[in-house]
């Protein structure tokens, strides 16, 4: 693990001190994709927001960091926190992982260079000149709705110029537009606004005794999987928790 | 900063997908995000559609095909013909591909095609594309008198919009080649092939690859490299065991058609035209005349499905946190692409000529040129430090044999 510079530490400190200033309120984000997002896993909205905060706070320094610095960077998000027994997570939904279309991405060693390589033979099967022609899963659903609780102005400011979600964005996948609104039904119990909607889980929820406790009242129908539930979602210190997956149905008996 | 550009095809544009149906190269197609609709195909109409295909199978000239089984060839031809905007066009295209010789059934198929609505046309073709093997094999078996009752579950489908596009990777690859080629020629005064070693070339022109060697010592060293090589900084590369992320996003060239822009009435597949081409491989100069006679020359005819001349694409680029010099290199790169005016495959045969109109974007390339003029020696030094000594310098120093060893180690 490598040390951050004083300049970056100062920027992080300044952000963290002011991150949660403002009123927490329920919000809704409509994401409209122009080109499908690549990758085969669900994407957490707090991960998207972390990315936006990362570039907003660190600016061009963000391009010079690598995995070794991860554990030193703890950025607060302008979202409500939910304490869930022995763990916690942010109150916001996820984009479910339902890609069913496939394309391919290609990377190859420039053939023209063969004229200038003296040996006249270059292995493209292995080693540093390995060529790729790999399948890439992507999604072709246009519209996703994300619900959550947070400081709407700040989220709006962070996502103002945010147009790319998912993998292979540099090559054009995941081009999208977002609309943020706080015009949601305030009568709804907002403390679980980003967690359940329409009797379905909007995000993975740790499996624990709470469902056992209410087992006479509710029944859970869905799949379980191991996944991290709060940022950072990548890195060596990430803890995996057994969760009910996004889209799990909650049926009242 | 976002740049919204328009691309106009001045000649047919072919961006291949490596997918082939027999000798027909298919274009790069992508499923465009849209609000999905659930649909159910009319069973009688589907039955009729398959019956029409059976008629084509019965009437086509089966003797003209090569060593592959006819049903395999038939499937490929049908698959290629399915890239049509409507069923009438599909039948016409299929008839040409299979050289059918029956006029009687043709009246029947035309009648069937013309009675379908636009939506029915779209979704019958979509069903056939998604269930190509069922579609073709049932048509073949029906010719032998077999009748099957298609299950209801096969008739349900979700709407799907397939559109030919120019992928962002295609633009990115060309832009990278052009910028690096320009820079290296300016710095060394020679063609990059003659100057760079395989590793340097791979890093600059293809982005390199992660290796076990150590990358950067700290943040400052990474920033220093960005300052020294701004042309590499905007596109990114792998250095040792770390990556140097690029700062630009290159969007897809999205075809302006009904699927992407409801104001345009033309369907995406109506922009696709089949272009017939030939190739002649002989061994002239490589083997003796007698051997040539024995081996025979290889002649080949093939066709490509390309987006026709006059089609328009929307294209978006975005960059963030570029320094003044980096921005200037970005402008230079975009200018070089616009000047090249070619994209995709078979450009030597006249395909892929495009006109890019970047709206009211203001170019400023002077800083890039002056940076290269002033920092020639520094760039050479950094390239040597990071990626090993260049061929040219080894040659000048008389240690070219070591370089040869390095290249053979590549093997």
Structure description:
The complex is a heterodimer of chains A (253) and B (411). Chain A has helices at 6-18, 45-58, 152-158, 209-213; strands at residues 24-33, 43-44, 81-84, 87-90, 94-95, 101-107, 132-138, 143-151, 176-181, 196-197, 200-201, 205-206, 218-221, 224-227, 241-244, 249-252. Chain A is an alpha+beta fold. Chain B is an alpha+beta fold and 411 residues long. Chain B contains 17 helices and 15 strands. Chain B has helices at residues 43-59, 70-81, 87-98, 104-114, 118-130, 132-143, 168-188, 192-195, 198-206, 219-228, 230-235, 289-295, 324-340, 366-374, 376-387, 391-397, 400-410, and strands spanning 2-9, 16-21, 24-27, 29-31, 38-40, 156-158, 162-166, 237-239, 242-244, 248-250, 253-255, 272-281, 298-307, 312-319, 354-357. In chain B, strands 1, 4, 7, 10, 11, 14 and 15 form a seven-stranded antiparallel β-sheet that branches. In chain B, strands 2-3-13-12 form a four-stranded mixed β-sheet. Chain B starts with a strand and ends with a helix. Chains A and B meet through β6 of A and α7, α9, α10, β9 and β10 of B.
């Amino acid at each position: 693990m490598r040390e951050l510079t004083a300049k970056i530490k100062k920027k992080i400190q300044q952000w963290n001190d002011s991150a949660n200033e403002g009123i927490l309120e329920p919000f809704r984000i409509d994401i409209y994709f122009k080109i499908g997002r690549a990758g085969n896993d669900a994407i957490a909205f707090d991960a998207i927001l972390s990315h936006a905060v990362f570039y907003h706070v660190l600016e061009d320094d963000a391009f010079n960091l690598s995995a070794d610095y991860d554990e030193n960077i703890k950025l607060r998000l302008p979202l409500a926190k939910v304490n869930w027994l022995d763990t916690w997570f942010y109150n916001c939904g996820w984009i479910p992982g339902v890609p069913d279309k496939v394309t391919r991405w290609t990377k190859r060693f420039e053939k023209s260079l063969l004229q200038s390589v003296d040996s006249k033979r270059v292995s493209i099967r292995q080693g540093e000149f390995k060529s790729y022609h790999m399948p890439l899963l992507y999604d072709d659903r246009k519209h996703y709705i994300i619900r959550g609780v947070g400081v709407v102005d700040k989220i709006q400011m962070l996502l103002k110029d945010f147009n790319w979600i998912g993998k292979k964005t540099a090559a054009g996948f995941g081009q999208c537009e977002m609309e943020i609104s706080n015009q949601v039904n305030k009568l709804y119990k907002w403390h679980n606004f980003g967690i359940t909607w329409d009797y379905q889980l909007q995000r993975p929820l740790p499996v624990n005794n709470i469902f056992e406790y209410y087992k006479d009242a509710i029944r859970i129908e869905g799949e379980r999987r191991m996944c991290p539930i709060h940022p950072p979602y990548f890195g060596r210190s990430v803890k995996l928790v057994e969760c009910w997956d996004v889209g799990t149905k909650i049926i009242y008996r | 900063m976002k740049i919204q550009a328009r691309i106009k095809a001045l000649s047919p544009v072919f961006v291949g997908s490596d997918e082939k149906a027999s000798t027909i190269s298919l274009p790069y197609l992508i499923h465009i995000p849209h609000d999905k609709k659930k649909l159910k195909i009319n069973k009688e109409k589907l039955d009729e559609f398959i019956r029409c295909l059976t008629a084509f199978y019965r009437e086509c000239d089966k003797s003209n095909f090569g060593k592959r089984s006819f049903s395999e060839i038939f499937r490929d031809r049908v698959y290629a013909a399915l890239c049509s905007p409507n069923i009438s066009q599909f039948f016409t295209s299929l008839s040409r591909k299979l050289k059918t010789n029956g006029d009687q059934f043709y009246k029947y198929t035309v009648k069937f095609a013309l009675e379908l609505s636009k939506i029915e046309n779209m979704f019958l073709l979509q069903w056939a594309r998604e269930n190509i093997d069922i579609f073709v094999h049932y048509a073949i078996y029906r010719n032998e008198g077999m009748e099957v009752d298609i299950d209801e579950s096969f008739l349900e489908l979700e709407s799907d919009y397939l559109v030919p596009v120019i992928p962002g990777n295609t633009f990115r690859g060309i832009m990278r080649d052009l910028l690096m080629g320009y820079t290296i020629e300016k710095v060394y005064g020679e063609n990059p092939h003659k100057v760079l070693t395989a590793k340097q070339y791979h890093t600059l022109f293809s982005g390199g690859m992660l290796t076990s060697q150590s990358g950067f010592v700290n943040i400052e060293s990474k920033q220093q490299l960005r300052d020294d090589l701004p042309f590499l900084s905007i596109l990114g590369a792998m250095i040792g065991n770390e990556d140097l992320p690029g700062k630009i996003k290159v969007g897809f060239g999205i075809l302006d058609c009904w699927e992407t822009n409801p104001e345009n009435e033309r369907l995406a597949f109506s922009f696709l035209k089949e272009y017939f081409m030939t190739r002649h491989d002989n061994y002239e100069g490589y083997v003796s005349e007698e051997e040539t006679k024995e081996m025979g020359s290889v002649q080949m005819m093939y066709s490509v499905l390309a987006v026709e001349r006059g089609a328009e694409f929307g294209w978006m680029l975005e960059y963030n946190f570029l320094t003044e010099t980096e921005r200037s290199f970005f402008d230079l790169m975009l200018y070089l692409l616009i000047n090249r005016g070619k994209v995709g495959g078979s450009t030597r045969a006249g395909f892929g000529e495009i006109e890019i109109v970047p709206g009211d974007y203001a170019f400023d390339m002077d800083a890039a040129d002056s940076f290269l003029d002033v920092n020639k020696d520094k760039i050479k030094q950094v390239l040597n430090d990071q990626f090993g000594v260049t061929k040219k310098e080894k040659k000048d120093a008389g240690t070219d044999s070591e370089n040869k060893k390095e290249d053979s180690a590549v093997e």
